UniProtKB/TrEMBL annotation:
Keywords noted in UniProt: Membrane, Transmembrane, Transmembrane helix
Protein name stated in the entry: Putative allantoin permease
Residue spans of biased composition, Polar residues class: 16-25
UniProt region (Disordered), positions on chain: 1-25
Annotated localization: Membrane
GO cellular component, one term: plasma membrane
Species annotation: Arthrobacter globiformis (strain ATCC 8010 / DSM 20124 / JCM 1332 / NBRC 12137 / NCIMB 8907 / NRRL B-2979 / 168)
Segments passing through the bilayer: 82-113, 148-173, 185-207, 219-238, 258-279, 300-319, 339-370, 382-399, 405-430, 459-479, 485-501
Family: Belongs to the purine-cytosine permease (2.A.39) family.
Main localization of the protein described in the UniProt heading: membrane
Membrane-related topology note: Multi-pass membrane protein
Length: 522
């Protein structure tokens, strides 16, 4: 145990009578909380704490409503999301039905992400530390590594998909480069390797500058992709001579139509099952709860309706043009006859994919690795380790293997619902938001989050049956009709199980982490 404040933590200034600022009149409760926080600061463990895992100071936080909005402006318009939404058109949903499915998902996500975001704004801690509340200071490794494992694999896959777009752009600019795209080295052509490694390096450089650089990049990329996708939809609408396929191509009606609509909304939530878990990685630097609500409102329901309108125009317009159903906007981009416009569209998609990768697939494994080795890894070193793993797994081979995507990554993804259920039930239903932040970094056996040898067995017991149920519903053919709702089954059973078996004899204290906090720009 340390007997001195941690390195990098500055004591709060003490107001004096000569100060120009009014002296805050503390209540007896405030004084007790400050004393408890200061005392706990002397007991933090170096195996649980470093400047990247530490809570952020409230003063100086920079993530505004616009910052959060641009997260969604980028992520919602990802190529994967377009492929999913266009898939709803392929299933037979028409324009208003697709918009209804996305609206259902958007409302649910707005609520889930707001509650998840509030946790980060209050405590100032990243997801691996937040997991210590319910799973214990050591048990939290399970939650953060599950989230990180899914993310690091998808980081490599998304980088590969972006490299394909880069190859198209390079060949369009320099046709002779096509000769470098005909061989195969470990499953990728020479031009493919150049494109992949180039994008890999760009992302690592951005992440090396920390969360503040990610915030700035997201703020830059958000407007770029919004404008690009709107212009692409306008171009398709003009090419289709103002006519789009508004009704479903399979003519779904009645119960089958509504089941498909609600299944689409449920799957839309499942896609964001990763984000609702670790949204606190971003909101730990949010300036207020209002900024989270404002950013989520414009970024989720409003932005998702715009996204839905673009999907309807792109898919319905292209169907009217030649009777084909596109898979992603990349299919349309490759058909642009003007080389300059094709290059600009490719650049925009590259900017988008990098933005999505940084926020959805890079931050989580970086914090997971930092949490695993806090003495040896900081944010920058963990970023390079995570990125290297994303390279050596040769992600294009994973992407080309349906069994890996469906059963391995899909199976890991199915576990995120139960994780979310346990974490949220513990924080909101059991503790009612009361957290002793300094004790999240303490190895004291009497600490609030030590439980049994650092693991909360009740959380594990609640997690296991919920995880089994989620996997069965997701993959067993007999439950095919319920498969789109697997995330909800897992989250619901996990939350209910934990709430029933949780230890209600605990005494919950609400102590902030300002005594051990660091600047949010670290």
């Amino acid at each position: 145990m340390h007997t001195t404040p941690p390195v990098g933590v500055e004591p709060a200034p003490v107001p004096t009578a000569s100060s120009d600022q009014p002296v805050h009149q503390t209540t007896a409760t405030d004084a007790l909380c400050e004393a408890a926080s200061a005392a706990a600061a002397r007991d933090i463990s170096p195996s649980l704490y470093n400047t990247d895992l530490a809570p952020t100071k409230r003063q100086g936080r920079r993530w505004t409503g616009y910052s959060i909005f641009t997260l969604w402006a980028n992520d919602v318009h990802s190529l994967g999301n377009y492929a999913f939404a266009v898939g709803l058109f392929s299933l037979g949903l028409g324009g208003w039905q697709i918009l209804t499915a996305l609206a259902i998902g958007a409302v649910l996500l707005f609520v889930l992400l707001s509650f998840s975001g509030f946790m980060g704004q209050k405590t100032g801690v990243p997801f691996p530390v937040m997991s210590r509340i319910s799973f214990g200071i050591r048990g939290a490794q399970l939650a953060s590594l599950l989230r990180g494992a899914v993310a690091v694999a998808w980081f490599g896959i998304q980088t590969f998909l972006a490299s394909v777009v880069l190859r198209v752009m390079l060949v369009a600019m320099v046709p002779s480069l096509h000769d470098l795209d005909t061989n195969s080295i470990l499953g990728l052509s020479t031009l493919g390797w150049i494109s992949f490694v180039g994008l890999w390096i760009v992302q690592l450089v951005i992440v090396s500058f920390g969360m503040e650089m990610i915030r700035k990049y997201e703020a830059f990329a958000g407007p770029v992709i919004l404008v690009t996708m709107v212009l692409l939809a306008v171009w398709v609408f003009i090419e289709a001579r103002g006519s789009i396929q508004w009704t479903g191509i399979r003519g779904l009606e009645g119960g089958e139509m509504w089941r498909t609509i609600f299944a689409g909304g449920a799957l839309w939530v499942s896609i964001y099952g990763t984000f609702v878990l670790n949204f606190c990685d971003f909101t730990r630097s949010a300036v207020s709860k209002k900024s989270i609500v404002r950013g989520n409102f414009w970024g989720i329901p409003i932005n998702m309706l715009l996204f839905g309108a673009i999907v309807v125009v792109l898919a319905g317009g292209q169907y009217k043009i030649n009777g084909t159903i596109i898979e992603t906007p990349s299919d349309i981009v490759q058909s642009i006859p003007n080389t300059l416009f094709l290059v600009l569209a490719c650049l925009a998609i590259l900017i988008l994919t990098i933005a999505v990768n940084l926020m959805a697939n890079f931050v989580a494994p970086v914090y997971a690795l930092t949490n695993l080795f806090p003495k040896r890894l900081n944010f920058r070193r963990a970023a390079w380790v995570s990125g290297t793993i994303g390279l050596v797994i040769l992600p294009w081979n994973l992407y080309n293997n349906p069994l890996v995507i469906v059963y391995f990554l899909g199976g890991l993804g199915a576990l995120l619902g139960p994780l979310f259920g346990v974490v949220m039930a513990d924080y909101w239903l059991l503790r009612r938001g009361k957290v002793n932040v300094p004790e999240l970094y303490s190895e004291d056996p009497a600490g609030a989050y030590f439980y049994k040898r650092g693991v909360n067995p009740r959380a594990i017991i609640a997690l296991v049956p919920a995880a089994v149920l989620a996997i069965l519903v997701a993959f067993v053919p007999a439950f095919e009709a319920a498969a789109p709702f697997a995330w909800f089954f897992g989250a619901g059973v996990g939350a209910l199980s934990y709430y029933v078996i949780a230890d209600r004899r605990q005494h919950f204290e609400d102590v902030d982490g300002e005594a051990i906090a660091v600047a949010s720009t670290h």
